[in-house]
Design goal:
Layout (H helix, E strand, L loop, with lengths): L2 E8 L2 E8 L2 E7 L4 E8 L5 E3 L7 H6 L6 E3 L5 E2 L3 E4 L2 E4 L9 E2 L9 E7 L3 E10 L11 E10 L2 E10 L5 E2 L3 E3 L1 E2 L10 E3 L4 E3 L14 E3 L4 E3 L6 E5 L9 E7 L4 E7 L3 E5 L12 E6 L12 H4 E2 L4 E12 L2
Antiparallel strand pairs: 1-2, 2-3, 3-4, 4-5, 6-16, 7-10, 8-9, 11-12, 12-13, 13-14, 14-28, 15-27, 17-26, 18-21, 18-23, 19-20, 19-22, 22-25, 23-24, 24-28, 25-26
Length: about 325
């Protein structure tokens, strides 16, 4: 018995789920192409839940806490919602109480299921939407977006592809905002292990400092989470021998680690201390193409630029591994 595709609802929003041998492996709402839940197999073969996603339709309606949010055409914050591109000063909508533009727009768009691949050894769901000037004021560009989630024996993979449909260059960056459940259930019993990297230094409004002041060598790459609040970005991550950048959520007491691997970019860690619901029950480990406020940083100006007809891809993989 292999993978099956099923359709469901979360209040008014359609949901697509993949089932393997009677067990749900992942559920994705078409609102925002939002991953609601997913699991992976531990080394001993048992399924372990990975994602602390939306459980009720009311949460999905408000997009509270940006759970599993796809972030595009920018990730995290844009200072005051303002940026300059090719001589034009543009203004994005800001989040009340934050004063910044936050997490792009695609998490609130309706997506369509473009394809479903069900093979004996893996299943993949592909979704599509478009960013238009009508969808996001202050962003006069049109981008077609494809995202996919796939599960197999090794874990869960996510990918995002953007293509510029316009006649002008467009600034673009993307990311993903999954909250990962701690193996064993206790975040304070866990630690995050980072590759060697630089920490992004921010002001009191969570905006990176100007120029080189924004970056400092991170001397601490094993972060014990007991009593520790994090809302920090890390950049210049050192790759493993295979070229992937890996951040690990380790639970020594139960001998497991959730491993997030990404091909490039930055990673944001958020322990959810400011959340109203499910505070510190999980940690957001967010793979992003760029650090916060990238639209206003000279060092990312060339990399952000997406030419007419141009395509760019990003993604990440989640898996479980046993701790030595």
């Amino acid at each position: 018995m292999g993978f099956e595709l099923r359709h469901d609802q979360l209040q008014q929003w359609p949901v697509v789920e993949v089932v393997e041998e009677g067990a749900c492996r992942m559920r994705v709402a078409l609102r925002g192409a939002t991953l609601l839940c997913a699991n992976a197999r531990a080394p001993d073969g048992r399924l372990v839940e990975l994602i602390d996603g939306y459980r009720e339709g009311a949460e999905l309606a408000t997009l509270d806490a940006a759970r599993s949010a796809l972030m595009a055409p920018f990730s995290n914050r844009i200072n005051d919602g303002r940026y300059r591109f090719d001589g034009d000063l543009l203004r994005l909508p800001v989040v009340e109480g934050e004063g910044h533009a936050m997490h792009g727009v695609v998490r609130g768009l309706d997506w369509r299921l473009r394809d479903a691949v069900l093979e004996p050894d893996h299943a993949e769901l592909v979704f599509e939407t478009r960013i238009t000037p009508r969808a996001l004021s202050g962003y006069p560009f049109e981008i077609i977006c494809l995202t996919s989630f796939s599960v197999d024996r090794k874990g869960l993979s996510w990918s995002f592809e953007a293509r510029n449909l316009g006649r002008l260059d467009a600034p673009f960056g993307c990311g993903w905002h999954p909250y990962l459940l701690p193996p064993g259930g206790d975040l304070d019993a866990c630690q995050v292990r980072l590759p060697a990297c630089r920490r992004v230094i921010c002001d009191a409004r969570r905006i990176p400092l100007p120029g080189d002041e924004a970056y400092a060598v991170c001397d601490e790459t094993k972060l014990a989470l007991a009593g520790r609040a994090l809302d920090d970005c890390f950049y210049d991550l050192e790759p493993d021998a295979d070229g992937w950048l890996r951040t690990r959520l380790e639970a020594p007491d139960c001998g497991l680690a959730v491993v997030l691997a990404q091909p490039s970019g930055a990673v944001q860690l958020y322990t959810g201390d400011s959340l109203g619901a499910r505070r510190r029950q999980s940690i957001a480990i967010e793979p992003t193409e760029f650090p916060p406020d990238s639209f206003n940083r000279d060092e990312f100006a060339a990399a952000l630029r997406l030419a007419p007809g141009g395509r760019r891809s990003f993604g990440a993989r989640l898996s479980l591994e046993a701790l030595a």
